[in-house]
Amino acid sequence: MILDRFRVTGKVAVVTGAGRGIGAGAAVALAEAGADVVISSRTKTDLDAVAARVAGTGRRAHVVPADLSDPAAAAALAQAAVGEFGRVDIVVNNVGGTYPRPLLDTTPEFLEEAFRFNVSTAHALTTAAVPLMTDGGTVVNISSNMGRVAGRGFAAYGTAKAALAHYTRLAAYDLAPRIRVNAVAVGSVATSALEVVVNNPEIKARMEADTPLRRLGEVEDIAAAIVYLASPAGSFVTGKVLEVDGGLQAPNLELGLPDL
């Protein structure tokens, strides 16, 4: 059965930024596909709610509250998985994000912070997990369509996500054939990060009109892509960035920043 190739029964996944949004959706989807999960973010109450959803699938969740802007905290999750479940097979580097800021207000420190939060954390967890992936494994990085298209105000975020996309290609080449590394380039998804948009009918309608598929993404759209890349269904895929963005070829949210 082809659907069996999308199962990860008996595997253990680590998902960062798993308290809500894409991270929470990924954790629950991987559990539904058969994995136990280590979930981490800053807020324990959010993680406990996700853990309850995981338990509802019949799988187990290990909650690790942590400030994942610290690469060392991200790296520690690999050992946490082995300590709790005896193994680690799947890493989903979802934590990240950076607020928009005009280019001339983007200090070197702000740019470096964006790189650390979006790239260094992923590298730290990946390099900590790979030696523990004794049966092989998969890494899925969450990038963004802003890593390949240009929009005002996204110099730090877009640069960091572009770096994460190319990091994916480079890491895949280094770690083949035993470890697969892929990424999902996410478009506009209706999560709490876009709460202002989702709750503003005018802005939401404009963004939908500027998206070829005429809607915002749902968490499940991204979670399904993650399961594909992490499972045997994606076993012949590595070093690729899967664009799950509704067909965007340009930003669908303009911040209205003026010319110089």
UniProtKB/TrEMBL annotation:
What InterPro entries does the record tag this protein with?
KR_dom, NAD(P)-bd_dom_sf, Sc_DH/Rdtase_CS, SDR_fam
Can you give the residue ranges of the Ketoreductase domain?
11-182
> What keywords would UniProt list here?
Oxidoreductase
Q: Which segment of the chain is annotated as a signal peptide?
A: none
Is Oxidoreductase set as a keyword in this record? Answer: yes
Entries under SUPFAM superfamilies matching the protein = NAD(P)-binding Rossmann-fold domains (SSF51735)
The record's section on SMART domains has: PKS_KR (SM00822)
Q: Which Gene3D superfamilies match?
A: NAD(P)-binding Rossmann-like Domain (3.40.50.720)
What Pfam families does the database record attribute to this sequence?
adh_short_C2
PROSITE patterns named in the record: ADH_SHORT (PS00061)
Q: Where are the transmembrane segments?
A: none
The family line of this record is: Belongs to the short-chain dehydrogenases/reductases (SDR) family.
Q: What is this protein called?
A: SDR family oxidoreductase
Q: Which organism is it from?
A: Amycolatopsis thermalba
